[in-house]
Specification:
Order of helices and strands of chain B: HHHHHHHHHHHHHHHHH
Structural class of chain B: mainly alpha
Chains: A alpha+beta (about 450), B mainly alpha (about 575), C mainly alpha (about 210)
CATH architecture of the largest domain in chain A: Orthogonal Bundle
Largest sheet of chain B: none
Strand content of chain B: under 5%
CATH topology of chain B: Cytochrome C Oxidase, Chain A
Number of strands of chain A: 14
Largest interface: A-B, 93 and 96 residues
Number of domains of chain A: 3
Number of strands of chain B: 0
Oligomer: heterotrimer
CATH topology of the largest domain in chain A: Cytochrome Bc1 Complex, Chain D, domain 2
Structural class of chain A: alpha+beta
Distance between the termini of chain B: 31 Å
Strand content of chain A: 15-25%
Strand order of the largest sheet of chain A: 5-4-3-7-10
């Protein structure tokens, strides 16, 4: 039953036809593949995304050739070389072809060199520092991103100052505001575990790495430049997601990049109003507290229906004012709430682990710095959360500062920010020392 | 176990039973130093873990049916589910499953009477059950939820005691793997009869040798990393805690220095199986035998230089380019293997046995895993899809489309040798088609959701991805169902399959030149290897095979020629 | 029942090693131990490299630690371990010359050397603990980052010495029964391990105490 063919496969007319058909199928197939590229990738919302997608096209073409070559040969083998029924014989004794082996070593190697060069070029082009970064009104600002389980916080260190001379820092929470053409340069810091900041539409991603807080953490950088997307209405929104497992709420650790059409709209709709709000806080501490509390990462762990918070890592804040007075005998509701914010380790609600970050005027994490005045307004706001309140809301402007004075020894300047005339012991020194230690 | 008491049938059974002498089932439950018993012990226990891990995968897909959290009580519960799924599939299924085939087949293929260290062999196996209990116990106590990669500080400062048990279990499994691999290396290098020269070795032996060298050199890195992790967790050290002068990337570096080579630990033996199966079932020598053997060594070597591509989004940017280049280089030896396999079947006389179908399935799926592997190596594109479902898809194409398909091919191929009976081919074909298409429709769409913006390891996702995820989940259930077909086939064939005879596939490698199953001493006389392991198609090989058939002439039907 | 029980099979014990020649057996054992030691080197090198990086980054703490550690006790300890390696060689030589009593004496001394070394390490650890150098991280202690990098490799090495002592005792037990009279491979394997432990210690000693 020996097969008579002892030499290798020879070139026959049939093989030429098969090869031609195969070539045709590959070309049509790869084209068909490529028509899907825009469907399987998000919009190209940044300059970087365009070059990354170009690389993807190249990879698809090379991958398509390999795919059709191998699947095609497989298919031909399966059809052409199946043993005829009843044939129990062997195939030809053919051990290999050194020339062919050299060819299929060299060609992939050359393709690899080509791909490496192309990738390297795109990489250096995309990751190079830009000439002008985060320019607002001709001046540069720093945009910082803080990741904490399970929320993103974006802060803008502006070059404006409040009447006390303190730098104004805009906190836009989970939203990054930018505009078409702005070279966004982010500095990323984490408060706990590793996170990964990913904006699919921009094709950029960078891990946030825990570092030694005493040495200013371990900041990482991320750069991208938003571009116009045809047919998009502005301001356009693109999701930010966390790509590195960070625990229970990893899936809902999201944010939004909001891209304005041009700088003037960015200034009018986001930047100036934000600064205005900081310089002119509502006189009512409760209203101020409602704004202030949203500048922190409280929403990443707590439920609070009034603000639409849904996280369940920590105890619910719904109705906190009804309970705060009964928690610890001899402690007022104001004192309890103030302590649980600045010294969260002091209490533990049954059923929850002590996981809350530290807040206060001199904590290591910039995003968690909270002046006594901010604490005052946040306590005032939380004192309104409930059917009734254990706090002395009639005299909130004295009872809460008194509580803060009692438990932390800080004098609260309740007129802070309301006029240009701040007291001698402003918290700015504290806030700045927090920055300065970095 | 009971035989149905049809008189005529019973008589036939009786006759058949005399033809195959296999160990009592109770032998498999006891301590044994016979490599064939240990091989089956490894195989059956690994397959049980495959079923457990697969059931967990079904749970994962159920949870992902909707974008919200509904099946699980919390995101943490979901996290621990995929953590244990990954841990089981890697450490308790694929790696020990290759130890199963390596144990059973390698000494036979070499013509050796046992492994070099039979006692150590048994000990390595018996470390697995306690390790598995520790890992699974952790799941029920307070589960590890940091993924199988267990990155600190999530795995040190933010996880429960289950993480400690997880690390202990993984540690034990690593030790078991090191011991098993030392055994394989010594066996392959020292236990060959003089006629079995290194260039006559079957390619499975080459692959197991390469795999074992990787395991001995790489697994200690896992052991070292886990030791430091355990110290951080229980002794208050801060090797991975930046606040105490440690470094979180230290873990990632050591871990991937083990775990990337571990990918080759999981796939190289499958490549060895593929060379065997493709050659035997298409009746043609392996194309470029030496290059296929050497490319295993090449992959093993280059595999040690690529680990940091798993850290493309955390590594210092300057260091990323070199790792991109080394990673791309791996494509060259892998390509040599792919083309050599195609060259092997090209012009052959292909028998569409179940083993062959799974081997062809491997070829067609692994090429997709290879292409996406090069895409992931291309740094700018990787940045976009890093830690997304694209990556999930890629490594399932390599580890399921690659390793698991090879495991199935090996199962159908060597089952007759292990049990003396053939598997049911019709069920095998049905199993193949369910698995192939279930797999394709489960994992191919994952590329797309990944690229569109769905990160991996999330229990809740953006609503726009729901349709894709439902398609994936449905296909996953088909894939899950396919497993029952093979389980049924194995049990049924174990008792009622046709008698295999010594060499049902008319293969030239030595494991077929003895009875099925082989006697405790493996060979009655010293076996004489044919001049080359895959020398099909020559007069000499036909004469050799006829002589073997004659020598074991229990007139068994020969399905290889029966089509 | 389709299978036959073992009773029906030719009477061959499953754990029969008779088919392996002595030389083959010895070669396997030696290659196995070498591979095992290769994997041990990896684990030690992770800890040693960890220490080197720390040393480069934190020269002050290491300099301070050198003053506190003192080399007297540890030098004596190193000498004991080196001597025990010599005893080990003598024990193997004695056995190869067929002198079982001599072998038992030398291997006994080897084990004793190991025990003395562990005793010395215990004394050193308790002295260091008094100075506040502990394994766990403690923000209050200036030694907070040194302790773990010192204890991890030295304790891991100590654990290997401990295992070595147990192994030596087992060699004594088997040797006393004449197990090695014809084939001293068991002693040779123990010897490889013991020399390895010794070499690792010389590296640790040089790295941690001297430079």
């Amino acid at each position: 039953m020996q097969n008579s063919r002892s030499s290798g496969p020879s070139i026959s007319p049939a093989a030429v036809v098969v090869a031609a058909v195969f070539l045709l199928v590959s070309v049509i197939g790869i084209n068909w593949f490529l028509s899907f590229v825009p469907v399987v990738l998000p919009e190209q919302a940044s300059a970087e995304s365009k070059s990354v997608d170009e690389l993807f096209y190249i990879l698809m073409i090379i991958g398509g050739v390999v795919f059709f070559l191998i699947q095609g040969m497989l298919l031909i083998s399966v059809i052409a070389f199946r043993a005829p029924p009843g044939d129990t014989g062997d195939g030809p004794t053919y051990h290999g072809n050194p020339l062919l082996e050299i060819v299929w070593t060299i060609i992939p190697a050359l393709v690899i060199v080509f791909l490496a060069v192309v990738s390297y070029n795109i990489w250096t082009q995309n990751s190079a520092p830009k000439a002008s970064v985060n320019m607002v009104d001709g001046a540069s600002i720093k945009i910082n991103v803080t990741g904490a389980r399970y929320a993103w916080t974006h802060t803008y260190a502006t070059e404006r100052f409040d009447p006390d001379g303190a730098q104004i820092i805009i906190n836009s929470g989970a939203d990054l505001h930018t505009y078409i053409g702005q070279n966004v340069d982010l500095t990323l810091q984490t408060q706990d575990v590793i996170h990964s900041y990913w904006v699919p539409a921009m094709r950029v991603k960078q891990d946030l790495l825990p570092g030694d807080p005493a040495q200013g953490g371990r900041p990482t950088q991320l750069r991208f430049t938003p571009v116009r997307v045809d047919g998009k209405t502005y301001p356009a929104e693109y999701p930010i997601v966390c790509a590195e497992l960070c625990g229970d709420g990893h899936g809902r650790m999201r944010g939004t990049v909001i891209v304005y059409e041009d700088e003037s709209r960015f200034l009018d709709q986001f930047y100036e109003p934000a600064i205005h709000a900081i310089l002119n806080p509502p006189a009512d501490p409760i209203l101020r507290g409602e704004v202030e509390i949203q500048n922190y990462i409280c929403n990443s762990c707590h439920i609070l229906d009034s603000l639409g918070w849904t996280a369940t890592t920590g105890p619910s804040l719904n109705g906190i004012a009804e309970r705060a007075g009964e928690r610890v005998p001899g402690q007022s509701a104001e004192e309890y709430i103030a302590i649980s914010i600045w010294n969260s380790g002091a209490f533990r609600v049954p059923g929850y682990d002590q996981q809350m970050a530290a807040f206060g005027p001199d904590v290591m994490e910039t995003a968690n710095i909270m002046s006594p005045e901010q604490l005052y307004s946040i306590v005032a706001y939380l004192c309104t959360q409930g059917e009734h309140s254990d706090c002395d809301m009639e005299n909130a402007s004295t009872s809460i500062p008194a509580a803060i004075q009692t438990v932390f020894g800080y004098e609260v300047d309740i007129t802070f920010g309301l006029d240009g005339d701040a007291g001698a012991e402003t918290p700015d020194a504290e806030a700045e020392s927090g920055d300065g230690s970095a | 176990m009971a035989t149905i008491a049809v008189p005529l049938g019973a008589q036939a059974e009786q006759q058949e039973a005399e033809a195959i002498r296999r160990p009592a089932l109770s032998e498999y439950l006891r301590w044994s130093v016979d490599h064939k018993i240990i091989g089956v012990q490894y195989g059956v226990s690994s397959f049980l873990f495959f079923l457990i891990g697969g059931a967990m995968a079904m749970g994962i897909r159920l949870e992902l049916w909707t974008p919200e959290l509904d099946l699980m009580v919390s995101g943490a519960a979901y996290n621990s589910l995929f953590t244990i799924h990954g841990t089981i599939m890697i450490f308790l299924f694929i790696i020990p499953m290759w130890a199963a085939f390596g144990n059973f087949v390698v000494p036979l293929q070499l013509g050796a009477k046992d492994m070099a260290f039979p006692w150590l062999n048994a000990f390595a196996f018996w470390l697995i059950p306690p390790a598995a209990i520790v890992v699974l116990l952790g799941y029920f106590v307070s589960p590890a939820e940091a993924g199988w990669t267990s990155y600190p500080p999530l795995s040190t400062l933010f996880s429960g005691d289950g993480q400690t048990l997880w690390a202990l279990g993984a540690h034990l499994l690593g030790i078991s793997s090191i011991m098993g691999s030392i055994n394989f290396i010594v066996t392959i290098l020292n236990m060959r009869p003089p006629e079995m020269t290194i260039w006559r070795m079957p390619l499975l032996c080459w692959a197991v040798l390469a795999t074992s060298i990787i395991a001995v050199m790489a697994t200690p890195f896992l052991a070292g990393a886990l030791t430091l992790l355990l110290l951080d967790r229980v002794a208050g050290t801060t090797f991975f805690d930046a606040a105490g002068g440690g470094d979180v990337l230290l873990w990632q570096n050591i871990f991937w220095f083990y775990s990337h080579p571990a990918v080759y630990i999981m796939v190289l033996p499958g490549m060895g199986v593929l060379s065997e199966v493709l050659s035997i079932h298409s009746r043609k020598p392996v194309f470029g035998y030496r290059m296929v053997g050497l490319s295993s060594m090449g992959i093993a070597f280059v595999g040690f230089t690529v680990w940091a591509h798993h850290m493309f989004t955390s590594l210092q940017p300057e260091l990323r380019i070199p790792f991109m280049i080394t990673t791309m280089i791996i494509a060259v030896p892998t390509g040599i293997k792919m083309f050599s396999w195609l060259g092997t079947i090209w012009g052959g006389k292909i028998r569409f046995t179940s083993a062959m179908l799974f081997a062809l399935g491997f070829l067609s799926l692994f090429v997709i895993g290879g292409i996406t592997g090069v895409m992931l190596a291309a740094l700018p594109f990787d940045i976009h899809v890093h830690d997304t479902y694209f990556v999930v898809s890629h490594f399932h194409f390599v580890l399921f489309g690659g390793s698991v398909f090879a495991i199935y091919a090996a199962l159908y191929h060597w089952f007759p040798k292990v049990t003396g009976r053939m598997m049911n081919e019709r069920l095998g074909v049905i199993h193949f088609f369910f698995t192939y298409f279930g797999f394709l429709f489960t994992f191919f769409p994952m590329h797309i959701v990944g690229m569109l913006g769905m990160p991996r390891r999330v229990a809740v996702y953006a609503e726009g991805f729901q349709a894709w995820n439902q398609l994936i989940s449905l296909s996953a259930f088909v894939l899950g169902f396919s497993t029952f077909i093979v389980v049924y086939n194995v049990i049924k064939s174990y008792y009622h399959g046709p008698i295999a005879g010594a060499n049902p596939w008319r293969a030239l490698t030595l494991e077929w030149q003895t009875t099925s199953p082989p006697p405790p001493t493996n060979f009655v006389d010293d076996p004489i290897p044919f001049e080359e392991p895959y020398g099909y198609g020559t007069e000499a090989s036909a004469a050799y095979l006829d002589a073997v058939d004659e020598a074991f002439s229990r007139g068994a039907p020969n399905p290889a020629s029966g089509h | 029942m389709a299978e036959l029980t073992a009773d029906h099979l030719p009477a061959v014990a499953h754990d029969d090693h008779g088919h392996m020649s002595e030389e083959e057996h010895n070669n396997n054992m030696k290659l196995g131990v070498w591979l095992y030691l290769a994997s041990e080197i990896v684990i030690f090198s992770i800890m040693i490299v960890g220490y080197i990086i720390f040393r480069i980054n934190e020269e002050d703490i290491v300099a301070q630690a050198h003053e506190e550690l003192g080399v007297g006790l540890v030098t004596a300890n190193t000498f004991v371990l080196l001597a025990s390696s010599f005893f080990m060689v003598m024990g193997l030589r004695a056995m190869q010359q067929g002198n079982r009593a001599g072998m038992l004496r030398w291997i006994g001394l080897t084990a004793l050397g190991g025990i003395v070394f562990l005793g010395g390490q215990y004394i050193e650890y308790s002295e260091l603990a008094h100075l506040g150098i502990v394994l766990g991280f403690d923000t209050a202690s200036e030694w907070s980052t040194f302790g773990m990098r010192f204890y991890a490799p030295t304790f891991f090495h100590g654990a290997h010495v401990f295992v070595g002592v147990l192994w030596a005792l087992e060699v004594l037990r088997r040797g006393a029964r004449g197990r090695y009279d014809n084939n001293p491979i068991g002693i040779e394997m123990f010897g490889l391990y013991w020399h390895f432990v010794d070499v690792v210690w010389i590296m640790l000693f040089t790295l941690i105490y001297l430079v």
